[in-house]
Amino acid sequence: MNVADSELIDGILQHEGYKQTQNIDEANAIFINTCSVRDHAEAKVHSRLGNFNRIKKNKPEVIIGMLGCMAQNLKEEILENKPYVDIVLGPDSYRKLPAILKNRLKEQKHIVDTKLSRFEVYDGLFPSRKEGINAWVSIMRGCDKFCTFCIVPFTRGRERSRSPKSIIQEVEQAVNNGFVEVTLLGQNVNSYKYDNIDFTDLLKKVSAIPGLLRLRYTSPHPNDVNEKLLEVMAESENICNSIHFPLQAGSDRTLKRMNRRYTKKHFLKYAKKIHDIIPGVGISTDIIVGFPGETEKDFQETLEVMDIVKFDSAYTFKYSSRPYTKAIEYDNHIDEDVKKDRLDRLIKLQKKHSLFRNRAMINQVVDVLVEKVSKKSDEYWSGRTDSNKWVVFQKSTANIKDIIPVRITAAHGVTLKGQIEGK
Ligand code: 5AD
Ligand code: SF4
Question: Is 35 in the pocket of ligand 2 (CB under 6 A)?
């Protein structure tokens, strides 16, 4: 989401004639786009802002702006403790940036705008994308689910969907600019709804755009995953066989306290449907350990769900308290060392499952999109499978952006090794 928002901000500024520089010391304005989802991300921003302050000491006229969720969440603290930050803009205020920059240059005052909108979807504005394989296309913003650990509904506001027309226009433009893969983005991507068009309808429409080789999306909520969506994914050539299916926790007690609105049984039922309906699918997930009140027994249930589903990969987090959220008020916050111990055990189990899933692919021939020269050596390429796994293989006469058949020969950790088939 943040890459997409940064590209949008870049697009807005470039449209007004501003240019990006690779050398921060040359910049007349420095913006940092921020995320508040976990406190770890916030800590990094504080440290970056400290660097910008040092730059400003040598060059007082430089404008420093903090944009995005942290601006929304921490504006008072920033204004009070970081007076060198000139501009603070929340995620619904990016359109105002050019006008603010002009005024700021005249007036030299602090400018803060963190009002959330019920309508802003940035229709009609085109992000400035770096050349590459994948274009991120935002289709909806905000979230109305209010999971009790999550700050997003407070920093990004109410759920709103972009018109299919403007989404299709943006995807067509991305394809014309050479992007072969598109990832549709939203905090809660599959609760997309515009007039009578739902997420599955939109996915079908976008997948029909000529020249689009691969279509992905993230992040869905398990409750909005239905059979119709899975069948469309299975039927369509270019919709990738890969799904992010965030578990968060395995015990019903914790799920209820998280306000996730599904049970372990429902989650397992749909995980099975995903595997049954979409052949060769890759499933990734998000899991939080140490949610307030989580007992060892609750945690064991998370491990149990993992053992049944055997996710291909997982983003794993220690619970951290976020402002405004309901879970802050809960009793029985878990000690840091218990959280760490649970996270270690969870990661260990996930590594085992990733290896299990990857090893099952050995000897299979899969379609790989050639994406870049491998970090390993100039003689190798890396690309992703439809199921979203990285494969490293020796170069051939094919080109970057081609989809080619690759035989998987080995599986180490998260990466697969392969050989171009027919070579
Ligand atoms: N603590 C830990 N992890 C969190 N996430 C969201 N909020 C928190 C929090 N307070 C994780 C969830 C979500 C992912 C984007 O970040 O797993 O799916
Ligand atoms: Fe946060 Fe996702 Fe829950 Fe929305 S659905 S509140 S974005 S975790």
Answer: no
| pLDDT class of 291 with cuts at 50, 70, 90 | very high
Q: Average of pLDDT values for 323-352?
A: 97
* CA-based nearest residue to 151, from 333, 326, 334: 326
d(CA 210, CA 58): 51
Ligand 2 centre and the CA of 221: distance in Å?
8
- Given a cut of 90, is residue 288 above it in pLDDT? yes
The CA radius of gyration of the chain, in Å to the nearest whole number, is 22
Which protein residue has the closest C-alpha to ligand 2 atom 3? 147
Q: Which of 2, 146, 150 to mutate to test the pocket of ligand 2 (most atoms within 8 A of CB)?
A: 150
Give the Å distance between the CA of 7 and the centre of ligand 1: 24
Mutate to test the pocket of ligand 1, among 1, 38, 258, 287 (most ligand atoms within 8 A of CB): 38
Q: How far, in Å, CA of 184 to CA of 283, rounded?
A: 17
* Nearest alpha carbon to residue 6 among 173, 160, 185: 185
pTM score: 0.94
Nearest ligand to the C-alpha of residue 153?
Answer: 2
89: closest CA among 159, 80, 81, 78?
Answer: 78
- For 54, other C-beta atoms within 10 Å of its C-beta total 9
d(CA 219, CA 337) in angstroms, rounded, equals 30
Where do we find the tokens 């270690």?
A: 344
Per 3-state DSSP, what percentage of the chain is helix, strand, and coil (rounded to 5)?
Answer: 40, 25, 40
Ligand 1 centre distance from Cα of residue 97 (Å): 29
Mean pLDDT, residues 370-386: 93
Q: How far is the CA of 409 from the centre of ligand 2 (A)?
A: 38
Cα–chain center distance at 176? 24
Do the beta carbons of residue 420 and residue 411 sit within 8 Å?
no
> What pLDDT shows up at residue 43?
83
